[in-house]
Amino acid sequence: MATRVGVGRSTNRSSATAGSEAARQAIAPLEGRTPSLVLVFGTAGHDQTALLQGVRDVTGNAALSGCSGEGIITRYGSEETSHVVAVAAIASDEIVFETFFVGGFGDDSRACANALVDEIRKRGATGSLLLVFPDGISGNCSELVEVLDAALPPGTVVAGGTAGDLLSFERTWQYCDDRVESGGLAALMIGGAVRPEVVVSHGCDLIGAERVVTRAANGFVEEIDGEPAWSFFKAYLPDGADSLDALHVAHLLLAERIGGRDEGIDDFTVRVPVKLDKERGALFFPAGIREGTRVQLARRNAEKVCTRAVEAARRVGHGHGDAQPLLVLDLECAGRGSLLFAAETTSRLIKPIQGVFAQDVPWIGLHTYGEIAAVAGRTWFHNYTSIVCAFYHG
Fold this sequence. Notes:
Elements: E1 3-10, H1 15-27, E2 37-43, H2 48-59, E3 63-69, E4 71-74, E5 77-79, E6 85-92, E7 95-102, H3 109-123, E8 129-134, H4 141-151, E9 157-161, E10 174-176, E11 179-181, E12 185-192, E13 194-201, E14 204-217, E15 220-224, E16 227-228, H5 229-234, H6 244-249, E17 252-257, E18 268-271, E19 275-277, E20 282-284, E21 294-300, H7 302-316, E22 327-333, H8 338-341, H9 345-354, E23 363-368, E24 371-375, E25 378-382, E26 386-393
Parallel strand pairs: 2-3, 8-9, 22-23
Antiparallel strand pairs: 1-6, 2-6, 3-10, 4-5, 4-23, 7-12, 8-12, 9-24, 10-11, 13-26, 14-15, 14-21, 15-16, 15-20, 17-18, 17-21, 19-20, 22-26, 24-25
């Protein structure tokens, strides 16, 4: 039967109804075939259990993976509202899917990652791509990707995004089959006759000179070149700035060198602080930044965000000729949505990316609290980044 893919979406405020509506749209192109996999992304205004039950009422016991997000992305564009859900359904006799869930990501991310690796080995699951959807407000994604890079077989690509809520940073949800959990890690191994292509992009300009993180602990960067980290940032903010709001309004970030220039992209990734300890002048970065890391201040450039994303999407198709993807997974940081583009996210960012591909290519994605993808042979945790993952027949 080869492979068929469909995507559905609903803005119904009834969670169960929304789940079933989106799922029915998604399975329609399968022509009566049973889904092999269901991907679900929903926003946090929904009753998450009812939402997933609505999906399962339509798709049955098909393998299911996904998470909550700050918004969702489909062919309708970016929708950052409290009640929206997107569902992708795939029916295939040539692609293999294996779903996983491990709890306790926020308590001990390294142990959680090792438990995932153990479960993958126990089941004998193999594949060319491992998608991960960890909790976005707890845990350390740097530890997660370190474990996965070291333990997975060579050639296994790791990509994904962290679950989000409605910018309240209170609770996120991870989906695995019929489970709806918080504080954990959902994962999906994909193998068989599929060739995933993953590209990452951001749009930032470097400012000032390169510095070194001289003191850091427990996720907090306390000092940069011997001065409080907050003082380092405040030098570029208006007088009297005393909160992270001023930093976000100024679109300031911290850039970390990663060595990606040979791949045609900037050789740095960007990280954003989410907490300020005013007494110490320390800034908390999800996944932490280690002492000795070379960093530099960066500022988001909205025009560059858009142009770089389109350039990255064009790189996806290199080597595939006129072939179109079976499905595109689009993971955009929540900071690349309405926070940056107001009401123009769809017209300025999403539609131009989608325009690189044929109009009938199924498209699903979400706005995350952090992105995971490899650059220069190593998997990194990113902020304010776009991950485009295109699945080609292989």
